[in-house]
Every structure is written in structure tokens, then in C-alpha cells.
Amino acid sequence: MNCEVCSFYYATIKHHISYFPEVTTGVCESCHKNIHSGRCPEFLKQQTRKQVVKFLHAQGITGMVVIGGDGSFRGAAALQAEGGPKAIGIPATIDNDIIGTDYALGFDTARNTGLQAIDKIRDTSKSSNRYFLVEVMGRKAGFLAVDVGIAGGVDHILTPEFPISTEELARQINAPMRKKQSLIIVVAEAGESGRSLKMANKLSKLTPFEYRVCVLGHIQRGGAPTVLDREIGSRMGNLAVEALLEDKTNCMTAMQNGKLQLVPFSGPDAPCRLLQNDDLLKLSEVLST
Questions:
Q1: Long-range CB contact pairs, 59-62, < 8 A, 24+
Q2: Among residues 50, 79, 144, 288, which one has the fewest Cβ atoms lying within 10 Å of its Cβ?
Q3: What is the fold, at CATH topology level, of the domain defined by 3-106+225-264?
Q4: Which CATH number fits domain 109-221: 3.90.79.10, 3.30.450.20, 3.20.20.70, 3.40.50.460?
Q5: Over 90: is that where the pLDDT of 154 sits?
Q6: Annotation says 95 is catalytic
Q7: Which region among 79-93, 165-179, 203-217, 273-287 has the lowest average model confidence (pLDDT)?
Q8: Which of 95, 147, 155, 229 is catalytic?
Q9: CA distances (Å), origin 88, targets 65, 72, 156, 251, 265
């Protein structure tokens, strides 16, 4: 997301901090990564980090706003511990699986993209009386699958936190509460992109129906950000600048119980955030009967 970049820029202007305005021009309405950053395996080496620290000092950089997930935050903390600048994180991942925050930037845009796809697939599903498996991203978490599934009114939602066997799924499909001419199953990738293809093949042998598979993949990672992502991104960017000015470091902006605040970076051994209960899955079962 880029709204946090835009907010960061204007917050620095307010506090008379030198920055590069050409980087932020026209980014609020875009989801593209104008910063052009990405993973760097070399950064895992201490010698590389020493070079980075030396470069940052030479540029007069005393504070960083790091946009990303746990890996990015661990890197920022390591850099700061080795003499680098102060670091404030902004959580951003469509998986929404960062410990310490209820919301990560990009999640709402991704789930809206998934919902639009399901709405379109439903049209062809009804017209052709076909059964569909729609696979969404999410890494090892089912947040994206659950929200897309409930909003899309699908028939089954499969998440890694509360797995059911293909045999059990087939049993439920073969014994519906009411007769259905079409059916949509949302499948979380569960760390295995394309797993819905194997599932469809197995279901076709266990049920009398033909299945089509739609793996949404990286289409969920782009597009114009939603109002929610723009608004929260803007607030997080501003809070990050204020935190640096207050000499804070090794923490991230976080949404907890509807309130925006700062929380410490999670430890290097902290697990990913996962669905903690199946209340929404039970709601989906009620809505799909």
C-alpha cells in the first residue's frame, strides 16, 4: 500500500523534516510498490548489514519506517541493534497474519478482490450448474478465506486452522440440506499454492459432480486500495513519524480492538497470527444451508 508513504511524506513536511517528494507523487490512489523494495537474501549476512549501516549513516538517516511483515521487522530490529537507525514498523500483508495487530494493510483490498471474483464466478456457476473451488492466498492463515467466503455467501470454507478431510467434504456435498444447482467452495492456500487442484480431482471421484478450479493467486496483491486501506494506511504513516520524533524504536503501528497504537516488535520465534476460533466458520455453515 502507498497511503502510508503519502502520509509519511506530509507528516515529515509538517515537522520540517527533509524528504524526497518525488517518491510520493500520486501514490495514494495506487497499490503499486513505488519504493521498489523487496527481499534480499544478502541482508541475512552481518557483513551486508554493516555496509547498510555505514550507508545510512553517510546519508544522515537516523530513523526508518519499515513497511512489511515479521521478516521486515526482524531485519529492522537487527539493523538497529548493530548501530543502525531507529525503526518503526507498519504492518502490511494481505495474509493479515502479523502478531500484535488485528489488521495489516492490504488485507481489505485483497478480500474485496476475492469477493469480486466470487461474484463473477457465481454467475457462470449458476448458468452452467457447475461446482467451483476458488483458492485464495493467506499463507498459513485463513483470515482471507473466511472473510471472502462469508461475504460471498459460499457453500464451504476451508482453512488451515480448522481442516476437514476431503472425504468429509465430499460427504457434506453428497448430503446437502437442500438441493443445489451450483456450489462454490473457498479454499485457503494453507502454504501450498494450487492445493485446490488436487482437491478437485479427488472430489470428482468421491462425488457425482464436475469441478472447476479458480486459483486467484497474485491478482489479490494488486489493484486500487479500498477506502479502509487508504484510511488506516494514512493514520499508520502519520503515527510512525510521530513515534520516531518521540525517539521510539523497535515497535510497530497496530490496530487492536479498533484502536490504533504502538506495540513492540514480536520476538524472532513468535508464530504467525492465526484464526483462534471457528465462530465465523459456523456462521458460514448457517448461511449456506
A1: 61/85, 62/86
A2: 50
A3: Rossmann fold (3.40.50)
A4: 3.40.50.460
A5: yes
A6: yes
A7: 165-179
A8: 95
A9: 5, 11, 39, 5, 9
